[in-house]
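For the sake of clarity, the format in which proteins appear in this thesis is described at this point. Each number in the token line that follows is a code from a learned vocabulary of backbone shapes. One such record is shown here in full, so that the layout can be seen directly:
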Amino acid sequence: MEKQEGRDPATVRFDDPWYDELAAGWGEHDPTDAAGAAPDTVPRQQAAPSAADIYLEVQRSPAFQEVRGRYRRFAFPAALAFLVWYLAYVVAATAVPGLMARPVAGAVNVAMVAGLGQFATTFLLTWAYARHARLRRDSAALELRWDTQEMTRGVRQ
């Protein structure tokens, strides 16, 4: 390491003769295989499927489609119901402020109860989603993951 002369005396230059050199096997293309022969002279066996082919095969499988369908049958209706409930709260707050200002108990009005209901339904929906995933999807998804890992073991990405 040595200091360079110039405008900034704090600039340090590293004298490393290997700095711009590639490590063995990194970014280099060797036209010969491990035996030293050109690739065209080596008899080729049937090529193993690539990772992309394996993942496409898994995606098309009935087991994957079932897991995906279970997710969609829960997530889309639940998200739609929650969105409608949220929009109903916002629309009611702006369109009928008299209704939302109506007292329920003491200083607590309809708007406060509905707002707390938003929090309650958020936690309820989170619990329902976790329960649905645990009971109906997790074991099948885990099995698919293990099968996919077994198929891709040793396959070059």
Observations:
- The beta strands are 2-3, 12-13, 103-105, 108-109.
